[in-house]
Design goal:
The complex is a heterodimer of chains A (about 400) and B (about 110). Chain A contains 10 helices and 26 strands. With about 400 residues, chain A is of the alpha/beta class. Chain A has 3 domains: about 180 residues, FAD/NAD(P)-binding domain (3-Layer(bba) Sandwich), CATH 3.50.50.60; about 130 residues, FAD/NAD(P)-binding domain (3-Layer(bba) Sandwich); about 80 residues, FAD/NAD-linked reductase, C-terminal dimerisation domain (Enolase-like, domain 1), CATH 3.30.390.30. In chain A, strands 3-2-1-7-19 form a 5-stranded parallel beta sheet. The N and C termini of chain A lie far apart (about 50 Å). Chain B is globular, with a radius of gyration of 12 Å. Chain B contains 2 helices and 5 strands, in the order ββαβαββ. Classes of the chains: A alpha/beta (about 400), B alpha+beta (about 110). Chains A and B meet through helix 2, helix 7, strand 22 and helix 8 of A and helix 1 and helix 2 of B.
Chain lengths: ~400, ~110
């Protein structure tokens, strides 16, 4: 009998982790990792942080050196888009015409940036930030830019804005909602970061869309907002969210709904196919329903969960979500999923630039957002792994020892 | 260049030249030393680059930040007085000859 083949589509953080963890877990079949970018698997978080700021180089980005893949017997195929999945014959079709067979397929296709459908979006100087190539282009432009407009005040937009200000550019941030990062963070944290960016010198227009991007001679010269204001710019970053790459799955007849739909073990509607990372829509005990998370933690832990199953140790995916964002001298750390909370309390004082927001739903702690307070974040991750048993009053009381609370829980 | 010795749980030793300014974690990743996972890439968001520093050499290592102390709560192997996150051990001339012991597991 031939050794089983696991093929992984997507060589980002999730795909890489699945491949590496298959070997860690003792899987002895063939492992094929196919990526469409023309480079080794790399880390994305620094692209909007230290790499963009020029504080780290490309060699710091690689998840592992090239030799790793040969040594761990991972067949890494990069620069090769997959064009189709043939479920009946269990084949993958690559753009170069190559087909190869698999016994289990892992979809780690990630997400791509969402385009802004306005006139002028194609102008030279209008950029996005998702890939290493995007970051290289942006880093180059940022050196020459003096007036930057950031469209979208999510994590990427705000991280970029902080770097651009530090590089000496004038920065305008245009956000269509009234709450920066509002899809993911609580109102106090959104407000705090809005004020922080304003203090650093950015101008923020909330509740404002973009009507068109203005150009001259093919190059961007500014942005016209939905209320008719014109802001001059020589660099415009569009960061209005991402779209999960679910087309291959959909075309193969798999269930797709805001990403590739999987069960609690991360299996798609075809038991021979799993999906992990940014592209996977999964049920979680940490939210009211299904979620699709875009984070390193989610990519890594889901990659490991699927690898363990394929190596003979199946189990439901139940890891506590966590996330971080660096903006200027502020480190935001999130444990759990705070979306949908009905009560929130502050621990610490935002005026000290060190505080946490503890978020509750129906009296139960569901997530904690910490700014420059790693100790709270660490406790939150421990508490959320079980029944936190923490009241809003305890969370808000700085005299209440959270470490001792966590120790009591793990001891029982 | 400072030399750093990585000792695996089975006693096997690997010695690396770590460029000044490079962390003990990054050097292990780049040179394929198994046993350092470094999920978060050195952002102090995980504890999967945990090492035990040779106790006699602890005084040569940089002091622990509050963030590192907090994150060491998450080590998969036992936390000991000489536990460090190797992403925070950045090579300086003082670290030449450093010996770090890799834990049984990082996850």
């Amino acid at each position: 009998m031939q050794a089983p083949v696991v093929a992984i589509i997507g060589a980002g953080q999730a795909g890489f982790q699945a491949a590496a963890s298959l070997r860690d877990a003792g899987f002895t079949g063939r492992v094929v990792l196919v990526g469409d970018e023309p480079v080794l698997p790399y880390q994305r978080p620094p692209l909007s942080k230290s790499y963009l700021a020029g504080q780290s180089g490309v060699d710091d980005l690689w998840l592992r050196p090239a030799e790793f893949y040969a040594r761990r017997q991972i067949d890494l195929v990069y620069g090769e888009p997959v064009t189709a999945i043939d479920r009946d014959r269990r084949l993958l079709c690559l753009a170069s015409g190559i087909e190869f067979a698999w016994d289990h397929l892992v979809l780690a296709t990630g997400a791509r940036y969402r385009a802004l459908p306005v006139p002028g979006a194609e102008l030279d100087g209008v950029l996005a930030l998702r890939t290493l190539a995007d970051a290289d282009a942006l880093r180059q432009r940022l050196n020459e830019a003096s007036e930057v407009v950031v469209v979208g005040a999510g994590f990427i937009g705000l991280e970029f804005a902080a770097v651009a200000i530090a590089c000496g550019a004038r920065v305008h941030i245009v956000e269509i909602t009234h709450h920066p990062m509002g899809r993911v963070v609580s109102a106090p944290v959104s407000r705090f970061f809005t004020e922080a960016h304003t203090d650093w010198g950015a101008e923020i227009a909330l509740g404002t869309g973009v009507a068109q991007i203005l150009g001259a001679g093919g190059r961007v010269i500014g942005v016209e907002t939905s209320n008719g204001r014109r802001i001059s710019a020589d660099l415009v970053l569009i960061c209005v969210g991402v779209i999960p790459n679910a087309e291959l799955a959909r075309d193969a007849g798999l269930q797709v709904d805001n990403g590739i739909v999987v069960d609690e073990c991360l299996l798609t509607s075809d038991p021979a196919i799993s999906a992990i990372g940014d592209c996977a829509n999964f049920p979680t005990p940490f939210a009211a329903g299904r979620v699709r998370l875009e984070s390193v933690q989610n990519a890594v832990d889901q990659g490991r969960c699927v690898a363990d199953r394929l190596a003979g140790r199946p189990g439901a995916y139940q890891k506590v979500p966590w996330f971080w964002s660096d903006q200027g001298d502020l480190k935001l750390q999130i444990a759990g999923i705070t979306t949908g909370h009905d009560t929130s309390v502050l621990r610490g004082d935002p005026a000290d630039r060190k505080f946490s927001v503890f978020c509750f739903r129906g009296g139960r702690l569901i997530g904690v957002e910490s700014v420059n307070r790693t100790a709270d974040h660490v406790v939150a991750r421990r508490l959320l792994a079980g029944d936190p048993g923490l009241s809003p009053e305890q969370a808000a009381d700085e005299g209440y020892d959270l470490q001792a609370h966590a120790r009591r829980l793990s001891g029982r | 260049m400072p030399k750093v010795t990585y000792v695996h749980p089975d006693g096997a030793r690997e010695v690396l030249d770590v460029p000044l300014g490079t962390s003990v974690m990054r050097a292990a990743i780049v040179n394929g030393v198994d046993g350092i996972v470094a999920e978060c890439g050195g952002e102090m968001m995980c504890a999967t680059c945990h090492v035990y520093v040779e106790p006699d050499q602890l005084n040569r290592t940089p002091p622990q930040s509050d963030d590192e102390k907090a994150m060491l709560e998450f080590t998969a192997s036992e936390r000991k007085p000489n536990s460090r996150l190797s992403c925070q051990l950045v090579a300086t001339p003082e670290l030449d000859g450093l010996v770090v012991y890799l834990p049984e597991t990082q996850v």
